[in-house]
C-alpha cells in the first residue's frame, strides 16, 4: 500500500511541535505592570542630583540591566550630552527603558492559534520549495532576480542584513513553532540589536540616537520601536493629551500587507493599534529627517495576527561612525500639506531642524 501522507515538509507534526517545545513563546507583558520604582526614586531626589554624572551612570546601568533580560548581547549604550551650557544629563526620568512590547488593557493576547511554523531541521534553506516560512515570506517579497527567499541575506559575509535595504516589505521570521534551530538565517530581529548606538543630546531636536564608533552597514537591524501597544480609542485619547504639550511618541502599527490581507483597497486600512513610546521605550525612537538613513519595517515573529507586527528599524544606507540615526515620521508631508500646516499651525506639525539639504522645514510631530 502506498504512503498517502503529505510530504513531511508541508506540515508540522505533533512530534515536531513537542521537539520545539523548549522554545514556546514567552508570556506577554502587560502595560499596567511597567516598572517605575527607579523613575519615582530619581524624581524624588533634588533636581540638582539628576544633573550629575552619577545620574548618568544610573541611567546607563538601568539600560544594561534591562537589556540583559530583554535584549541580551546588545552592546551597551552611553548617554552623552556634548552641548555647552546645557545641563540636562540624561533623558527625562519619565519612561521605563524596555526592548519589549507591553500590551495595553484593550489589546488581546498574541494570537498563537493562527501562528504557523516551518518543519525544517537545522537551518532553513532560503531556496527550499517546501519550507513554510520561505513560502510565507515569498508571498510578499522576491529578490532582485524575482526568486523566492528570505528578506535577509544568509551568506556568511552579509548574514542578517536586508537583501534590499530601503525597500518596503513585511518580514516573516521563523518563530517559536518552527522546527529550525536558532542559527537559522531567518531569525534576526529576535536575536536583538548587534550594532553599537548611543543616546546623544542635540542642539535643536532634543535627545537622538547616534551610531557608535563603527560604521553600520546598509540593511542592518537597529532595534524595535518598543513601548505600550494600545488599541485605537486609548491611543486617540493619549494623542489628544500629547498634542496639548506638543510632543508625541505615538506610532501607528500600519503596513500595506495588513489592508491587503484584510481585503481592503490600498490606503483604506486605518491602524487598529498604536505603539506609545512615551512612558516606556528604548533608544530607538529617533529623530525625524527629511533624508532619513533608517526606515521602519513590519516584522512578524510570535504573532499570528496580521494587524500586530513588531515595528522594526533597519538602516537603509551605510551609516558612518557617530552619525545620527533618523527615520521619516510617516513620510514627508507633501507641499500642499506643508502650506496648509503653515496656515493652520496645527499641533500635528512642528518646525523641522533635520538640516538635510532637501529639508522641507516642517515635519509631522
Ligand atoms: C519621538 S521624540 C524623539 C526624541 C526626542 N528628541 C526627545 O528628546 O525626547 C519626537 C520629538 O523629537 C523632536 N524632533 C525629532 N525630530 C526632529 C526634527 N527633525 N526637528 C525638530 N525636532 C525634532 C520633536 O520635539 C518631536 O516631537
Automatic annotation (TrEMBL):
It comes from the Eukaryota. GO terms for biological process: methylation. Its main location: nucleus. Pfam families: Pre-SET, SET. Gene3D superfamilies: SET domain (2.170.270.10). PROSITE patterns: POST_SET, PRE_SET, SET. Residues 195-330 form the SET domain. It is found in: Chromosome. One of its GO terms (cellular component) is chromosome. Residues 348-364 form the Post-SET domain. InterPro entries: H3K9_Histone-Lys_N-MTase, Post-SET_dom, Pre-SET_dom, SET_dom, SET_dom_sf. Signal peptide: none annotated. Residues 116-192 form the Pre-SET domain. Keywords: Chromosome, Metal-binding, Methyltransferase, S-adenosyl-L-methionine, Transferase, Zinc. One of its GO terms (molecular function) is zinc ion binding. This is SET domain-containing protein. It comes from Athelia psychrophila. The lineage of its organism: Eukaryota, Fungi, Dikarya, Basidiomycota, Agaricomycotina.
